[in-house]
Amino acid sequence: MSGYLDDSIGHVSASARPRRSDAQLNRERILQAARELVREPGELKLNAVAKACGIGQGTLYRHFPTREDLLIEVYRQEVDELVAAASRLLADHPPLDALAAWFDRVAAYARIKRDVFAAVEAATWQNLAAHSLGPIGGAVDLLLTAGRAAGSIRPDAEVRDVIVLISWLSRLADAELDARGSRLLSILVDGLRAQP
C-alpha cells in the first residue's frame, strides 16, 4: 500500500525510505499529534504539531516539508489502518460481527477524512479520495464475500452500495456523528443481513 499516492501528487513518500529507530519514533509521534490536532477548529499549524510531540520544527520539516504532506500522510495512514482492520476482524469474529466492528472503525475514519479533506486543496482531496476508494472497496469486498460464504450477508449486497452508504458519515458534523453514527451503521448492518 505504501506510496500509492506518490504518482498522483508528485511526492516521494517518506515511508518508502528506511529510517533509524529514533527517526521512526519521531515520525509516529508527529503523525499521532497531527491526527489529534486536525480535529481542532481552525487550520492545522505545523508549529503546533511540533510542540505537541516535543520536537523541533526542523525535525518535523525533515519528515513532512509542507502541511499538505503531513495531512496526506495522516489520511493515508488512516486508510491503511482501516483496510488492515478488515482481515484482522475476520480472523477473530464471524463475518457479520466483523463487518459491524469494521463499521465502528469506519466512523473514526470518517472524522479524519472530513477534517483532512477540509484542510487540503480540492485537487489534493480528489486524488486522495480516488486512490483510497480501491483499497477501502477491497476491504468491503473481503467482508461481504466472507459474509456471503457464511450465509450471514445477503447475496445481492454490492461493494459500491456499502461505499455509497458509509461515505455519508464523513459529511456529518461531530455532534451528529456522535448522536447518530452508531445507529446508522447498525441499520446498515441489519440491511446487509441475510434474510432467513
Automatic annotation (TrEMBL):
PROSITE patterns: HTH_TETR_2. SUPFAM superfamilies: Homeodomain-like, Tetracyclin repressor-like, C-terminal domain. InterPro entries: Homeodomain-like_sf, HTH-type_TetR-like_transc_reg, HTH_TetR, Tet_transcr_reg_TetR-rel_C_sf, TetR_SbtR-like_C. It comes from the Bacteria. GO terms for molecular function: DNA-binding transcription factor activity; transcription cis-regulatory region binding. Keywords: DNA-binding, Transcription, Transcription regulation. Residues 24-82 form the HTH tetR-type domain. Pfam families: TetR_C_43, TetR_N. Residues 45-64 bind DNA. This is TetR family transcriptional regulator. It comes from Paractinoplanes toevensis. The lineage of its organism: Bacteria, Bacillati, Actinomycetota, Actinomycetes, Micromonosporales.
